[in-house]
Amino acid sequence: MMTGIYYLPELHDFKYLAQVPWPRLYNEQADWVATVEELEKWLVSYCGPHWSEWAYGQQTNNDYWLACIAFKRERNKTLFLLQWG
């Protein structure tokens, strides 16, 4: 699976932002690539395509330990927060 380019905020018009802790992969090496891949795999499976239903959002603060995702639909934001929040 190809991940986003270094988790950079993207240009989009999605208004539903969610910030959650990055997932922890206990059975694998602590590696940011595996973490981004795990999160993106879930987003594509449950919310839809990248840039169509979700995109990386601009952090509202400097909390680098939080992933910031912007969603097109409020229901996807809610589902995301229930899973990862």
What are its keywords?
disordered N terminus; 85 residues; three-stranded antiparallel β-sheet; alpha+beta; globular
Describe the structure.
The protein has 85 residues and is an alpha+beta fold. It has one domain (16-84). The protein is 31% helix and 18% strand. It has 2 helices and 3 strands, in the order βαββα. Strands 1-3-2 form a 3-stranded antiparallel sheet, covered by helices on one side. The protein is globular and about 35 Å long.
Counting DSSP E segments of at least 2 residues, the number of strands comes to 3
- Counting DSSP H or I runs of 4 or more residues, the number of helices is 2
Query: Outline, from the CA principal axes?
Result: globular
Q: How many domains in all?
A: 1
Q: Reading side by side through the largest sheet, how are the strands ordered?
A: 1-3-2
Question: Which percent range fits the helix content?
Answer: 25-40%
Q: Please, what is the average pLDDT? A: 83
Main sheet record: 3 strands, antiparallel
Write the H/E string, N to C.
EHEEH
Q: Roughly what fraction of the amino acids lie in strands?
A: 15-25%
Distance between the termini: 24 Å
